[in-house]
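Progress note, project year one: complex with alpha-L-arabinofuranose.
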Amino acid sequence: MSKRFTRRGFMLGAGAASAAILTSRRGFSLEPAGVGIDASKEIGLIRPELHGQFAEHLGTCIYGGLWVGRNSPVPNIDGYRRQAVEYLKGLVPVLRWPGGCFADDYHWRDGVGPVARRPKTVNISWGNNIEDNAFGTHEFIGLCRLIGAEPYFSANVGSGTPEEMRDWMEYCNYPKGSSLSDMRTANGSAEPFNVKYWGVGNENWGCGGQMSGDEYATQYRRFANYARAFGETRPFLVACGPNGNNQEWTRKFWGNMAGARRSAPQGFAMHFYSNGLNVSTKFTPAEMEKQFSSFVEIEQAIVEQRALLDTYDTQKQVGLLFDEWGVWDRMVPEEQTRYGRLFQQITMRSAVAAALGLNVIHRQAGKLLMTNIAQIVNVLHSLLLTDGPQCVRTTTYYVYEMTKAHLSQTAIAATVEKPEPVGLSVSASRKGGELTLTLVNPKPDAGLTVNCSLAGATARSATARILHDADLNAANTFATPDRILPRDHKITVDGARLVADLPPLSVVTAVVRLG
Ligand code: AHR
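Model obtained:
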């Protein structure tokens, strides 16, 4: 038995030495696990857009969350919640807006011009509440600029028209001289917004119009036909992809796009939520395992959808997006009443789910162009939760913060020696003399001593951080906002070997210097 197993904090489990299973003083077993990393096997660039976010006019994501208004007692920067801006700055490469289902009944003209004159409309997607349109195109672009995010608009196909979408593009991107660009100037921005990413509808198989794939392709072509580079920025059009791994949608859409090369989208966006069988703070280990198993299906869906897309997109000109994902647990009615529709608490389980998802995304970096977890504040798998002046960084926030080091690095092969459906998960990436590694232990009752063998590079030193709580339902609540924080973690490095202990339910990210 190697010495490292007997250091302070861990002891040999009674009679378990031969099976190399250890027991920690905290009472969980510590099992050996092997990982192989090959720095010479490159998978693809981890584009910053792979850590994208999504903001929707839903519950308190926008109003009361990101946007409190200029006259709010909540500290703000021109109406944006100051604390949220500070927390999000530099963490959000791309932000999708305004929906979601909301997008396919959103009329952009309602959200520009003097606020007092903007119409009061009804948000038919999320509870028929009054939408006063105080947060519109200019406010969204202002937010993106404050936090350093690239804007990604979802245009209205469901109840909108091709004219409305092309006018929105002209309004945003035409430099000056047309009535619409002059209107933008009059509304406060002489500079064009240069919006590049444009979704042509959202979930048009569902809330975005209840269409079949071929019906949507017909609509898509009409809308795309009038999209233009109104100025310097050529629009990158994203077509609605399947719900999960629905291959019939993909076949029907691309079948009806045959011969329509001019209107072919640059992106194709799938959605895949990981549903929960309980409310977020009452999960049992079995319910958690079921939810975690969805990430196996998600990885399979990405691989299969990309392969199917390749049969139509033989020149590989269409990027696959995964622009809605995350855990969707059962809702607590009182919480929804107080904090808005689809509000759910974010727990240690949610953090592990986010890290399992990001590991899939890193491992499949060569097949993906963008991903957007839903939603950034107060809805589903959020980074931040707010209550009046309070703004809490969730465990999801910390997972994104810890794994940010992967961005702009090249994903490299990293495999678990004895993979299990819900077992150790790994992703690795490299740039120059730095390697980033994320290890996730999704098991609630077993710790892991992870032994990584490194080929194609030599490890000189490493630093690591861990996010961990033994209680799967523990959360950074409004009462305990700092319960789960990343901490420094020990990792041993020896040339071709890295060793780290992972307690149950933990996420570890290591930055390794190569020599
Ligand atoms: O994220 C909530 C909703 O889920 C989105 O509005 C919609 O696109 C999806 O069905």
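The two ends are 29 Å apart (CA to CA).
The pocket of alpha-L-arabinofuranose is lined by residues 56, 99-101, 202-203, 324, 374, 380 (CB under 6 Å).
No further modelling is planned for this target in the current period.
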